[in-house]
Amino acid sequence: MFIDKTKTRLPDPAEALPGRAEPIATAKVHFVNGNSLKPPYPDGLEVAEFGLGCFWGAERLFWEIDGVWTTAAGYQGGVTPNPTYEEVCSGRTGHAEVVRVVFDPSKVSYGDLLRTFWEAHDPTQGMRQGADVGTQYRSAIYIRSDSQAAAAAEAKDVYETALQAQDLGAVTTEIAPAKPFYFAEEYHQQYLAKNPGGYCGLRGTGVACALPTSTGA
Q1: Whole-structure pTM over 0.70, yes or no?
Q2: Per-block average pLDDT, block size 10, for the chain (217 residues)?
């Protein structure tokens, strides 16, 4: 397979596209459950953000979980403010395609979400997921608290051990403090609910993730 190296290298900030001051227009409510995509969210809910490759299939995966209040497709981890989808796909914004998951921790734990994240994709592929190649498809966890940071790091160690036991590669998942999350355009939101026959490139490794209770599982 030919891989365009210009799309698999994160841009230097000086090379990144300038973006814009105003947010890109998007949906106001979730197409499936009618809840708000944007904050403020109801009291007691928490926010988690994950990159698993193409965000269409990844978002559906999370909105189907009991205890998830809303989800949104967006861009995170890069430099360009308020990027468009085309700009992200150029590889010149530094952003990953990400799913925001707003959840009720009394119904579903962050550890449960981590298990779904690890098992639903291949976190060993670097700047790609299968045939989807580019920095926007990288595996990523963007953390919003000390407890999320500790749980994500511990889960990575556990899952990497399980992968290595199956002679699979090292984990390349980016685990980093959350940078600004930019909502993707309206047509990307809950895409597979609007287009049931649409593309979903999610492919797990087949390795189960038995996380310790300290992750909140």
Answers
A1: yes
A2: 68 96 98 98 98 98 98 98 98 98 97 96 96 97 97 95 92 98 98 96 88 70
Please answer whether residues 202 and 58 qualify as being in contact, where contact means their C-beta atoms are separated by less than 8 angstroms: yes
Sequence spans of domains, the chain? 27-196
State both tokens at 153. 């790091």
Instruction: Look at residue 212 in the predicted model and tell me its pLDDT.
Output: 67
pLDDT number for residue 87: 98
Question: How many angstroms separate the CA atoms of 80 and 35, rounded?
Answer: 28
Residue 153: closest CA among 215, 68, 83:
215
Say if residues 205 and 122 touch (Cβ distance below 8 Å): yes
CATH T-level fold of 27-196: Peptide Methionine Sulfoxide Reductase; Chain A (3.30.1060)
Cβ burial 54-93 (10 Å sphere, 16+ → b, else e): bbbbbbbbbbeeeebbbbbbbbbbbbbbbbbbebbbbbbb
Strand duo 139-143 + 46-52: pairing = antiparallel
Length of the chain: 217
Residues with a known catalytic role: 54
